[in-house]
Design goal:
Pfam families: OMP_b-brl_3 (PF14905). The chain is mostly beta strands and 914 residues long. It contains six helices and 47 strands. The chain has a 26-stranded antiparallel β-barrel.
């Protein structure tokens, strides 16, 4: 049934894809761009703008013969702009009536003026340079209170996923800079949520070389996609700008946000503040539901409430952050940022779990009450010096202090195969965890006299500590028969102290071998030292006797020596790197009062990378690597953790290391002429001597978890994304598909269990690409998960999730805006009586009541249908679980936003807005 539905969905989407691809081109506007010398101009940007407000309609670039073809055009009065660096911009009015237009030959005039880059960006909607695409932000309509996220979503070739990741031309954006400088460590999530879209003059998408390639001039293929946001000229004149907003609503709901920035040519200061009780942490406010994506493993924090990515329970948040950046000279700068976060999360949930242990399967149900309080301090800093042509120096550091207090109360019931109540337990756990971490990383890159010859060296030092105080009380009622119940009450105190130090030193040397060949030798040393001190006492309250007392000190040390030898071939289009990594691994661990257990191994790990970039916007990459993973301290410890009497964990000191072969193929294509984006990835992991869980469940439902080396683990992950315009309808569609296949083993009550998990996700969305007065997006996604087990076939699980969504944003007038979002979710699960359907509806109305739009009132409606529920589901190696949590439901808030120092735009000498 589920497979059939899934296949039908794929077939429908496939035919939609074929139809729209085959019928996507309208009658074109064509022409040829030449220089004053009658030579063709390649990579000139040809843009069509709406004649009314200069917003972007479509664009393309010229080929090596200077020819351009513009498709995907709607019937309208348009303004054609052609731009190439060093030439004057060309403008021509066009009335497009769905008939082909041939503009013949267009000769650009040489630009003799010296316009600065900001003025150029204000004139030209799009610039295409060697490794950069720059968009003029004024060519895209944004609302007065939109943040950067709202602007980036409108740019061709960019996409922001539900997880907050920014994808540009099929590649994940790793950093976002402001005026070429870091803003809160360049973290995209912070930048997206805390800068206003109307403060930006230009958005640059940069295919950035690695730091080493920038210094040596040798293209090593290690590029990354970054975004640089250029502020409007009025924001750079040492004047503060930002916005202040706040709101109150029904049921005592409130929020407040502050963002203030003061940027000069050399120094940047920013302040961020948030305070609310509406479950906002900076993530998407619509994240009410999460569906587990395939087989998951139990967290080491099994005794605490399972965290969900969605906004469960009732959350109060307070955030304060400050950023300071200073540029000493060109390409030499210092940046530091500090964040304080305080949150309190409370709630009630209900858990249902189906457990299997060969013949004695059972169900578990629990009512949970949880409370978590977090205080977090986080300081980041970095120093970069790339001002010297022969060397570069990078220093990064991080200090973190995190104190968490949590409470979990759980009333659980165990039922046998006949659905008879056998055991009940009341479990209360109070936990205080004080974590600290310090990290410093220093890297030095030196270019030597001979071209291509260079070396780099550096080290990374991390020191961390964790002190945990646990207090758990458990009341158990064991019904041996209906007339003779057995009661037991335990109280356990456990104090744990963990210390971990990690030091890594590396040295790399590159020698040119002639032509485009290079020899690269890398050597590194990794040292890990960890200690654990634990004291535990367990008292039986029913007879007031101490059952046991445990005190131990545990140590762990790992030394790894790596030697990497690579043969590289580097050209502007092709990069090949083939070599091997020699690894000498030595481990020492055990309790301090006994002789340590010693493990020593030597490995030869091959590695290979082939990357091909035939032309702009296209990249194909093959990657292979073998890696070694040592057992963690929890997996290899010799000491038993029985804080929770129903969930005991023990390690296995005889574990061997895992050996994983990773094979990955990626393809990213961005076609400027049609604004089509295609990206795909195939990743396969094969692990030998995989460390698998060994679960033993006795007749009292006590679950003991250990580990074994259990054969092989396989994981195949594929992703596909395709986006293109449908010109006749003025729309853009996006098709996405993700598939996950995994096989692993587990041992359940001494029986080897083969576990297979399959997860499929397909989504299709359509949105308008001419966003002058309104935006809309609609689509659907379909997820199916199947998990099967070899030891018990009738417990195979299949569940699905269908999500039909739509959003609509319209400017009713220049000052009045309305937007709404609606999701309709349908669930099915062959193991649980899940919610059949769940509608979610949000809406907002905003009004800017001043000419400069400095003042904005907004009425916000969240969860209008009051479906205040959160669902977390997962499949593990011996149980299925579904947790339903009461969460923040319907609320209405009236908010006010004031934009700081939003003065009138100044005009440049040529009368162009900066």
């Amino acid at each position: 049934m589920y497979k059939s539905s899934f296949l039908k969905t794929l077939i429908v989407l496939f035919f939609i894809f074929i139809y729209s691809t085959g019928h996507s081109q309208s009658a074109p506007i064509t022409g040829t761009v030449i220089s004053p010398d009658n030579l063709p101009i390649e990579l000139a940007t040809v843009s069509l703008l709406n004649a009314k407000d200069s917003t972007l309609v479509s664009y393309t670039i010229t080929d090596d013969k200077g020819i351009f073809n513009l498709f995907e055009i709607t019937k309208d009065s348009l303004l054609l702009n052609i731009y190439s660096m060093g030439y004057n911009s060309y403008y021509k009015g066009i009335v497009y009536k769905k008939a082909a237009i041939d503009l013949k030959t267009i000769k650009l005039k040489e630009d003799l003026s010296q316009l600065d880059e900001v003025v150029i960006s204000a004139v030209v909607p799009i610039q295409v340079k060697k490794d950069t695409i720059a968009f003029n932000a004024s060519s895209f309509k944004v609302n007065p209170d939109d943040n950067i996220e709202g602007l980036l979503k409108k740019l061709p070739g960019l996409d922001i996923g539900t997880d907050g990741k920014v994808i540009a031309q099929g590649n994940e954006v790793t950093k976002i800079y402001v005026d070429g400088k870091e803003f809160f460590s360049g973290d995209p999530a912070i930048v997206l949520k805390n800068l206003s879209a109307d403060e930006i003059a230009k958005v640059e998408i940069i295919d950035k070389n690695s730091d080493e390639a920038e210094l040596t001039g040798i293209n090593d293929g290690n590029k990354q996609i970054v975004i640089n946001l250029s502020l409007k000229k009025t924001k750079r004149k040492n004047r503060g700008f930002g916005k202040l907003s706040g709101g109150v609503g029904l049921d005592n709901r409130y929020f407040s946000n502050l963002n203030y920035n003061n940027f000069s040519k050399k120094t940047q200061i920013s302040v961020i503040g948030k305070f609310n009780n509406i479950n906002i942490t900076g993530s998407n406010i619509q994240s009410f539901l999460e569906n587990a994506d395939g087989l998951t493993d139990e967290s080491d924090e099994e005794d605490s409430e399972k965290p969900s990515k969605s906004l469960s329970g009732f959350l109060k948040t307070g955030v304060a952050g400050v950023h300071y950046g200073h540029e000493y000279q060109k390409r030499e700068s210092f940046n530091a940022d500090y964040f304080y976060n305080n949150s309190e999360n409370n709630g009630v949930s209900h858990s249902k779990r189906i457990n299997f242990a060969n013949v004695n399967n059972f169900d578990y149900q629990a009512e949970n009450t949880f409370s978590n309080i977090t205080n977090n301090h986080n300081l980041n800093f970095n120093y970069k010096n790339q001002s010297n042509k022969s060397y570069s120096l990078f220093v990064k550091g991080k200090l973190n202090a995190d104190k968490r207090t949590s409470y979990l109360g759980r009333d659980g019931s165990y039922l046998n195969n006949s659905n008879e109540l056998v055991t009940t337990n009341n479990n209360q756990l109070e936990n205080e965890n004080d974590k600290k971490l310090a990290n410093v990383n220093i890297n030095y890159i030196k270019r030597l006299a001979k071209k291509g010859r260079s070396f780099s060296t550096g080290f990374d030092l991390t020191s961390s500590s964790s002190d945990r105080d646990n207090e758990q009380s458990t009341f158990t009622s064991r019904k041996l028969n209906t007339n003779n119940p057995n009661y037991r009450e335990l109280e356990t105190l456990r104090d744990e102290s963990f210390r971990n130090n990690r030091f890594n030193f590396n040295f790399k040397y590159t020698e040119p071998l002639g032509g485009n060949y290079f020899l690269r030798v890398e050597t590194s040393f990794l040292k890990i030292v960890g200690t654990e001190n634990t004291n535990q006492s367990k008292t039986t309250i029913t007879n007031n006797t101490t059952e046991d007392f445990l005190s131990y000190k545990y140590r762990y040390r790992e030394n790894s020596y790596f030697t990497k030898i690579l043969n590289n071939y580097n050209t502007p289009k092709l990069n090949i790197s083939i070599g091997t990594i020699l690894q000498d691994l030595n481990r020492y661990f055990g309790e301090t009062h006994v002789n340590p257990i010693t493990k020593s191994q030597f490995y030869v790990n091959p590695t290979a990378i082939v990357q091909y970039r035939p032309n702009r916007g296209k990249k194909y990459r093959f990657f292979y690597r073998r890696s070694i993973k040592s057992p963690s301290i929890n997996q290899s410890t010799t000491v038993i953790n029985n804080l929770n009497p129903f969930s005991i964990r023990r390690g296995n000191p005889e574990l061997k290391t895992e050996k994983t072969d990773l094979l990955q193929l990626t393809a990213n294509i961005f076609e400027h002429k049609s604004a089509a984006t295609f990206s795909s990835k195939i990743q396969f992991l094969y692990t030998q001597d995989a460390i698998i869980p060994n679960i033993n469940i006795d007749e009292d439902f006590v679950r003991t978890r250990s580990y074994e080396n259990g054969g092989n683990r396989k994981r195949l992950n594929t992703t596909l994304s395709f986006s293109r315009k449908i010109s006749k309808l003025g729309l853009r569609y996006t098709l996405k598909n993700q598939n996950l296949f995994s096989t692993t083993n587990s041992i359940v009550n001494n029986i080897l269990n083969d576990v297979t998990s399959q997860n499929f996700l397909t989504s299709f969305s359509v949105e308008n690409h001419n966003k002058n007065n309104f935006d809309f997006k609609t689509g659907a996604s379909f997820t199916i998960n199947e998990t099967s087990f070899s030891i018990i076939n009738d417990l195979d699980r299949t569940y699905t999730k269908q999500d039909y969504f739509s959003s609509f944003d319209i400017d009713v007038s220049k000052k009045l805006n309305f937007n709404t979002q609606f999701d309709y979710l349908i669930f099915s699960d062959n193991k649980f009586d899940s919610i059949d359907n769940l509608p979610l509806w949000n809406a907002a109305v905003s009004y800017a009541f001043s000419k400069k739009k400095n003042n904005v009132l907004k009425l916000l409606f969240i969860d209008l249908l009051d479906k205040n529920v959160d669902i977390y589901r997962r499949s593990t190696i011996n149980y299925f679980e579904e947790t339903t949590t009461e969460s923040l439901g319907r609320y209405v808030i009236m908010s006010y936003t004031y934009r700081l120092n939003n003065s009138k735009k100044r005009k440049s000498k040529k009368g162009i807005n900066g």
